[in-house]
Amino acid sequence: EDKVVGFIGLGNMGNHMAKNLVNKGYSLVVFDVNKAVVKELQDAGAKAAGSPAEVASLTKHIVTMLPASQHVTEVYTGNNGILSSVQSGSMMIDSSTIDPAVSQEMAKLAGGKNSVYLDAPVSGGVNAAKGALLTFMVGGPKDKFEVAKTILDNMGKNVVHCGAVGTGQAAKICNNMLLAISMIGTSEAMNLGISLGLDPKLLASILNTSSGRCWSSDTYNPCPGVLENVPSSNDYKGGFGTALMTKDLGLAKNAAQATSTACPLGSFAQEFYTKMTEKGYGQKDFSSAFQVIKSVSGK
Ligand code: NAD
């Protein structure tokens, strides 16, 4: 079996995912525009390529983990992009969260090269990426899904087939819209409780055994000091950037408009994180919503 995998996009998520593949015995060929992260993977045993095209010329299995639609389009279709040199019979798996229409377009272009492209966005933060505990939501032909799963199983604990290409993105967009909303709600509830004199850790432990419990409260609490090893306890560094969450809410907004579906809280969240990004929170973890709510309360 072919144990060589190409990996493009070695950021907060991709670098852990790629390292897990190395640890599971895959030979990796990697590329990123950021030389520092490439070096980190080389130190872990991966081979560095000079472009996405070179990655595609060296392996038929490629995973991409890039910020947004425009980066995916560039890495696949640009000069020196994957599709300029992809080998017939290749499989490309894109785990970035992007517009489902872009996934469908990439799949069509890949088909024209006798290859297959699947969308496989992930849920779970950087700690889940590190621990190979991600959920992959995959869109593409069922038989190709089975092949992709053998690779994705090394980076996640749930690999779910959602349907045709683009449906993985659809599931992901819905999840993140809910997460964006629940993070604002958790921040608001934690901040109110503190204003009322409650100890934040105690309040969190009550929420987490009550009906308000959610991932934002029990796994990724936005209030500093409640949990260790989450961005809120590390000055909101690392994790999932507010700018990326804002991007995902833009995708939800487009999807809602395209299907004439009401998403009142989704629209509110989109405006809330857009303002945060404008105020300079873009590179901080999105759980810094707590800081914003605290500061508008004058605390
Ligand atoms: P990131 O910005 O940390 O990493 C992206 C990487 O892509 C960077 O290393 C960057 O240098 C590289 N890159 C950008 N343009 C490139 C190009 N043209 N060629 C090669 N490399 C290029 O982002 P991330 O947090 O790792 O997220 C990646 C994707 O996963 C996003 O779509 C995000 O929405 C999604 N996601 C993130 C999280 C999270 O918690 N961080 C969770 C689930 C899903």
Automatic annotation (TrEMBL):
Keywords: Branched-chain amino acid catabolism, Mitochondrion, NAD, Oxidoreductase, Transit peptide. It is found in: Mitochondrion. The chain holds residues 48 to 346 of 366 of the full protein. It comes from the Eukaryota. Transmembrane segments: none annotated. One of its GO terms (cellular component) is mitochondrion. This is 3-hydroxyisobutyrate dehydrogenase. Pathway: Amino-acid degradation; L-valine degradation. Its EC number is 1.1.1.31.
